[in-house]
Design goal:
With 169 residues, the chain is mainly alpha-helical. It has 4 helices and 3 strands, in the order βββαααα.
Length: 169
C-alpha cells in the first residue's frame, strides 16, 4: 500500500520505505504514457483533418468537372433548340406559301434549311457528341427531316405552284 509517497506493507512490521529507482521510473513512464496517448490522439486528429481536406478537394474537383460537362450539355441543348426552331421555320414557310401563294413566304423555309444544316454541323463538333452518342441521333433527325422535305415540302410547293416534277405526273 502506498501512502504519502511511502510504501507500506500491511503484513510486515518493517518500517516504511521510500520509493526506490524502479518505482520512480514507473511513475515517470506513466506520465510519458499519458503524453504519448495525447500525442497519438493529436496525430490521429491531424491525420483525419488532412484526409478530410484531401477528400473535399477531390469532391470539389469532381463537382467542377461535372459542372463543366453540364455546361457543354447546356450549349448542346441550346443548339438542339435552335435546330428545332429551324425545322419549325421550314414548316411555317411551306404552310405560309400554301396559304398565300406568295413565294416570299418560302424565305423562312430556305432560312430554316440553312440553319438546320449549320446547327447539325455545330452539334457534330460538340465535345459531348461522343458522350451522348449525338452523331447517330443527328443522323436520325436529319433523315427524318429529309423524308419530310421529300414527302411533304417539295411536293406541296411543286403542286401548289403548278409545276409538277416527274415524280408527280
Amino acid at each position: 500500500m502506498i501512502f504519502a509517497g511511502v510504501l507500506f506493507s500491511p503484513e510486515s512490521t518493517v518500517t516504511p520505505q521510500p520509493y526506490d529507482a524502479t518505482t520512480m521510473v514507473n511513475a515517470s513512464s506513466e506520465r510519458t504514457s499519458l503524453r504519448r496517448r495525447v500525442g497519438v490522439l493529436g496525430c490521429i486528429f491531424v491525420g483525419l483533418v488532412v484526409f478530410a481536406v484531401g477528400l473535399c478537394t477531390l469532391m470539389v474537383r469532381a463537382w467542377g468537372r461535372a459542372v463543366d460537362a453540364r455546361g457543354e450539355l447546356r450549349v448542346a441543348a441550346a443548339e438542339v433548340a435552335d435546330l428545332r426552331l429551324a425545322y419549325s421555320d421550314q414548316e411555317t414557310g411551306v404552310r405560309g406559301y400554301l396559304l398565300s401563294d406568295d413565294s416570299s413566304f418560302l424565305d423562312p423555309y430556305n432560312n430554316g434549311v440553312a440553319l438546320a444544316r449549320a446547327m447539325q454541323e455545330r452539334l457534330r463538333e460538340q465535345s459531348v457528341s461522343e458522350v451522348v452518342d449525338l452523331d447517330s441521333q443527328i443522323d436520325r433527325v436529319e433523315s427524318a427531316a429529309q423524308r419530310w422535305r421529300d414527302d411533304v415540302a417539295q411536293p406541296a410547293t411543286f403542286q401548289h405552284s403548278g409545276i409538277r416534277s416527274l415524280e408527280f405526273t
